[in-house]
Recover the amino acids of this structure.
């Protein structure tokens, strides 16, 4: 959860995601100014660091950040569908009420669990068949 739409909030949310899920190789996002600002600020901070020390400690851990074209959310494909499913889950839980940060975070983790429990493979109704593969298995 980002607590604001400024670059610092997006970077902090990104760092929390990396701490929870691990360092990604590729990040694909829309062309929002907060995302563009995050990448720009990350590059500026990297230039201030000792390049040899960074290369030594972060060898082969670079992140490629790709942006969809402006006003082209249809380029998102599958991840836009997952965003829509997460929004539906969050709105169903909150239903327009006045919520605290704790309740909002709980709704977010509930939506996260819902998205990550969807099956990748065919799900049989037979009780003796194996459990289908889901994102939670990874």
């Amino acid at each position: 959860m980002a607590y604001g739409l400024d670059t610092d909030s997006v970077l902090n949310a990104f760092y929390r995601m990396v701490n929870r899920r691990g360092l990604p190789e590729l990040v694909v996002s829309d062309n929002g100014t907060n995302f563009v600002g995050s990448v720009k600020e990350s590059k500026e901070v990297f230039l201030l660091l000792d390049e040899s020390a960074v290369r030594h400690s972060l060898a082969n851990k670079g992140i490629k950040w790709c942006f969809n074209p402006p006003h082209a959310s249809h380029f998102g494909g599958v991840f836009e569908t997952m965003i829509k499913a997460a929004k539906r889950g969050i709105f169903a839980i909150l239903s327009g009420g006045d919520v605290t940060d704790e309740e909002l975070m709980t709704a977010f983790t509930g939506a996260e669990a819902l998205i990550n429990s969807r099956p990748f493979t065919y799900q049989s109704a037979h009780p003796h068949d194996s459990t289908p593969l889901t994102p939670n298995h990874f």
User: Anything to note?
Assistant: Helices lie at 7-21, 33-48, 51-57, 78-94, 101-116.
